[in-house]
């Protein structure tokens, strides 16, 4: 049984991500955890120094959170009514990142699926600080769904890599799982800068080919492009439905996201983006 965490702030954006998750795993037996975190918007001196319950503030916010989760669950059952899916709700006085980390550990979550907000007037997705922090700190595959993206089966998956990762079962399992669910083709994309692959990279590439032997896959080489440009250009040439990257230390992924001097990273992305951590402990059979 899959365990999938669905954070929600009750926005259209988060509802869109929930709809995507339910359709992506419609044939799988799943428990979905609906999560809403809350903190008081304003901290008065009295609120800090005296118990919040005396003001009724915490109770009111918690009640609103629980009511919102009940509404979401009802909406899901009215819209999808899938007997393979069950739901659990969690309203938590905590920050989003801490609560997600705790739940992933406590429940053995397989995927976190959340929405991302498109930039106003631009054809790009801005990964805000919350999304980037989830990518960085949560040891579980995280799927970010662009605002207003309508579900389409991920028949063509784009997997950019520099072949500098000694691929492990735990990293490849989610890619193969999704590919098998939808009879997808995996497009492995490597950006070359004019030099041959090192022996270690060749070994990693061969290992990747072994992992993908039971699913359709193609290896692609492009020359002297920035990785974000390479991804954007590939999307324009092929109808890619899902982008997958491994967040590995010292890889181009880390350079792309975590060494930026700004908090929000503009990325020309119109499709869901699955980020796989490099060190999640996971029992696997492929």
From TrEMBL:
InterPro entries: Universal_stress_UspA (IPR006015), UspA (IPR006016). Residues 1-146 form the UspA domain. Pfam families: Usp. Belongs to the universal stress protein A family. This is Nucleotide-binding universal stress UspA family protein.
């Amino acid at each position: 049984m899959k365990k999938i965490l669905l954070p929600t702030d009750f926005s259209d954006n988060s509802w869109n991500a929930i709809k995507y998750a339910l359709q992506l795993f419609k044939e799988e037996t799943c428990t979905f955890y609906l999560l809403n975190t809350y903190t008081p918007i304003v901290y008065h001196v009295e609120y800090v120094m005296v118990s919040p319950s005396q003001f009724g503030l915490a109770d009111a916010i918690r009640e609103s959170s629980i009511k919102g989760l009940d509404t979401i669950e009802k909406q899901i059952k009215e819209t999808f009514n899938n007997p393979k899916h069950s739901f659990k709700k969690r309203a938590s006085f905590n920050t989003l990142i801490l609560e997600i980390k705790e739940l992933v550990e406590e429940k053995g979550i397989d995927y976190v699926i959340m929405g991302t907000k498109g930039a106003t007037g631009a054809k790009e997705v801005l990964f805000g600080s919350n999304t980037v922090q989830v990518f960085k700190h949560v040891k579980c595959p995280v799927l970010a769904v662009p605002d207003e993206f309508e579900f389409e089966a991920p028949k063509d998956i784009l997997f950019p890599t520099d072949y500098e990762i000694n691929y492990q079962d735990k990293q490849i399992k989610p890619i193969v799982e999704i590919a098998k669910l939808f009879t997808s083709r995996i497009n492995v994309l490597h950006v070359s800068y004019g030099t041959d692959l090192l022996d270690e990279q060749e070994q990693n590439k061969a290992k990747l080919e072994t992992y993908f032997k039971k699913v359709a896959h193609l290896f692609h080489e492009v020359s002297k492009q920035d990785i974000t440009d390479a991804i954007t250009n590939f999307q324009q040439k092929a109808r890619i439905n899902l982008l997958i990257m491994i967040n590995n230390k010292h890889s181009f992924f880390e350079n792309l996201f975590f060494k930026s001097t700004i908090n929000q990273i503009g990325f020309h992305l119109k499709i869901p983006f699955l980020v796989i951590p490099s060190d999640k402990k996971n029992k696997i059979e492929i």
